[in-house]
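Sample intake — Ribosomal RNA adenine dimethylase
Collected from: Clostridium carboxidivorans P7
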Amino acid sequence: MEISNFIKQYIRNPKTVGAIAPSSEKLAYRMVEDIDFLNASCIVEYGPGTGVFTEKILNRKKDSTIFIVIEYNVDFYKILKDKFKDKTNFILINDSAENLKEYLDKYSIDKVDYIVSGLPFASLPHDMSRKILSVTKEILKDKGEFITFQYTLFKMKLFRTYFDKIKIKKVLLNLPPAYVLKCKN
C-alpha cells in the first residue's frame, strides 16, 4: 500500500515528493544511527512522507525530547496524524520546512539538536532549498547536526555553502540507492 501511495504522490507532486517508494530499513538505520538520543532535547524532521524515519526516532527518543515533524504534503500529513496520534512530545505540522522558525518561536524553542530530512533538494525550487538550508543552519545548536539523504550528489555545492563539515555514506540497500549526508558547522 505504501509504494502505490508514494507513486501516486510522486506523479501528482514530483517537485516536492522525491521518491516512488518509502525508504528502506537500512537507510532509516543510517539516518538515525549517530543521533545522541540520551542528550537531545529537540529533534526536527523535514518531509517524513509516511514516517519511516519518524517511527525510528519515536522508538528511541526520550519521553522528554520534543520531536517536531513538518510535512508539506496533505495526504502524507493525514497518514502521519493518524499513525502517531498518541505520541508524547510529538508536534506534527502541515507546512513547508521554510516556515519552521515560526513554529519554533510558537513553542518557545530557540535551537535544535538534530534535523533529519527526507526533502528532495535535487527537485525542490532553488530559492526554496536555499531558504530551508538557511533556516536549518540558523536553528541548529553549535554542535547540532543536519542529516539528509539524496539520490545524487548533484547539490553538494549547495550543501557546502551552508555546512563546513559533511560526511557522506552510500546506502546501496534502498530503492534507488541513496547517499546519507551528515552536516555540521
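Post-analysis note: The CA atoms of residues 6 and 20 lie 5 Å apart.
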